[in-house]
Amino acid sequence: MPQPDAGNNGGPTDGASGATTEGNVAYGRKPFKRSKSHFADRITADGRDGWPVEAGRYRLVASRACPWASRAVISRRLLGLEDAISLAITDPLQDDRSWRFTLDPGGRDPVLGIRFLREAYDARETDYPGGVSVPAIVDVPSGQLVTNDFQQITLDFATEWTALHRPGAPDLYPEPLREEIDIVMAGVYRDVNNGVYRAGFATGQSEYDAAFRDLFRRLDLLSERLLDRRYLVGDTLTEADIRLFTTLVRFDAVYHGHFKCNRFKLAEDPVLWAYAKDLFQTPGFGDTVDFHHIKHHYYRVHTGINPTGVVPAGPDLSSWLTPHHREELGGRPFGDGTPPGPVPPAEEVPPSGRPEHLLTGGS
Ligand SMILES: N[C@@H](CCC(=O)N[C@@H](CS)C(=O)NCC(=O)O)C(=O)O
User: Fold this and answer.
1) Which end of the chain is more exposed for a tag (fewer CB within 10 A), N or C?
2) Is 8 contained in some domain?
3) How many domains does the structure of the chain reveal?
4) Is 99 assigned a ligand-binding role in the annotation?
5) What is the pTM of this model?
6) What is the span of the domain harbouring residue 294?
7) Residue to probe by mutation, ligand 1, list 14, 148, 255, most atoms within 8 Å of CB
8) Does 317 lie in the same domain as 268?
9) Cα–Cα distance, 177 to 175 (Å, whole number)
10) Ligand 1 close to Cβ of residue 13 (< 6 A)
């Protein structure tokens, strides 16, 4: 069932509400506060919320610009759910009707037949008053939004969709490590994933200072933690790594400048930089990243903090592909499993979004 919006103070839900709500009015004077997901139904093996796990029934709508949606794209790929859950990629630029399918022929999602993600929200709840956000999972037969609960979607991919995982899929949320994973993820969420937004959309100095301090204190701790261990928890990839990665991969390209998170660049912290490159070069991570979408979304949509909409040409992203040497720490990326195969051709990131598209390629 839809959940009441809690904690939305009328500011941007993540500051990415599209041009109209991104203006100065939306920034308000209250501190940045993330709104809670409105639709929190779960797709489960037993179908207790009315949405059973079923191959081919659901469509994941994601923006490659969005860190929260990118979690779902990575986890879907690591688990080999590509054939079970189809993927729609939105235009990185919202307009005042929010996320749209302008990248698709005729401006319509070819499976759902809609032009705006809002249509799936409306199909679920008439005159839905809240913001439209990605990631969103839509029930294809009815065209209705099922969930936009970004915190739960990936956990359910890992634990409820197991019957449809590929052979050799990793266990991204292993039972014996859940307590530790949850603790690590809580700190990463508060200070890093959401922390960069708190800094970037701060409307006062003390709010910004606090977010900046918490962010870099946490990054220092993470750097220390990762000094002699390849992954955040245990010796394999878990959900915790996915969640940290989606912020780190955006760090130098957008958060360092656009969100004023500039005590250091990721590339200046040897441990975090090597860790992030290691993940980037692991099948399922970097092959989902579109730097063009990331940069253009943040710098062009957030007109409140970048009124000119000019997108910086740098940084040089080709260094994401340089050696990281983290394999010397051991670790078993996929545990007893195997890496995912190649990206399905229809889902390949275009050359413009890849790191080898150097500065000469433009912004
Ligand atoms: N606030 C979302 C979390 C995901 C999120 O913030 N996604 C952003 C993109 S990175 C979004 O779609 N924002 C839409 C908007 O601000 O209108 C939720 O409550 O589920």
Assistant:
1) N
2) no
3) 2
4) yes
5) 0.92
6) 177-361
7) 14
8) yes
9) 5
10) yes
